[in-house]
Design brief:
Layout lengths: L12 H5 L9 H27 L3 H7 L3 H29 L3 H25 L5 H15 L3 H5 L2
């Protein structure tokens, strides 16, 4: 009994006949998403701690702020929690191959960098340098070598 289909003439001919499979997620995208999730969790936990601590009179005395200042601090901390939730949600969308989410994360990292640099210049301390480097590294990882992965759907 003979084989009804002849063997492929080229070794890669069998691969051409298989259905198209999108490329695997680049490791850089995975690393950028993980960094975004970790950064969002860290920022969110710190902000939640500030929300609870800002109501403590001893904490207010240590910072030398009034109750109005504590209310402002609480409002800023609530904004940071919402910001961190948005970062985490956008990182999930990047993980699901949504290029618009990667662009949105890059814009958010840019805004974070601007506010942090302004704060560092006005306070005269390099306290936010690690956070800026972290945000920039995460964005670079999201875009580095991932154009074909985002394009394949």
């Amino acid at each position: 009994m003979s084989n009804p289909t002849p063997p492929p003439s080229r070794p890669d001919a069998a691969a051409e006949s298989t259905p198209y499979a999108p490329p695997d997620r680049p490791g850089t995208v995975l690393a950028g998403c993980i960094m975004s999730w970790v950064g969002a969790a860290f920022g969110g936990v710190i902000a939640i701690a500030l929300i609870f601590a800002s109501g403590d009179p001893d904490f207010q005395d240590q910072l030398n702020i009034t109750s109005e200042g504590a209310a402002s601090l609480r409002l800023i901390a609530i904004f940071i929690v919402l910001w961190c939730l948005l970062v985490a949600g956008l990182a999930v969308q990047v993980f699901r191959r949504k290029r618009w989410a990667a662009i949105a994360l890059a814009v958010m990292a840019g805004i974070f960098t601007i506010f942090t640099v302004v704060n560092m210049v006005s306070s005269g301390t390099p306290s936010g340098l690690v956070g800026v480097a972290y945000a920039v590294a995460a964005v670079v990882l999201l875009f580095n070598g991932s154009r074909t992965w985002y394009a394949a759907r």
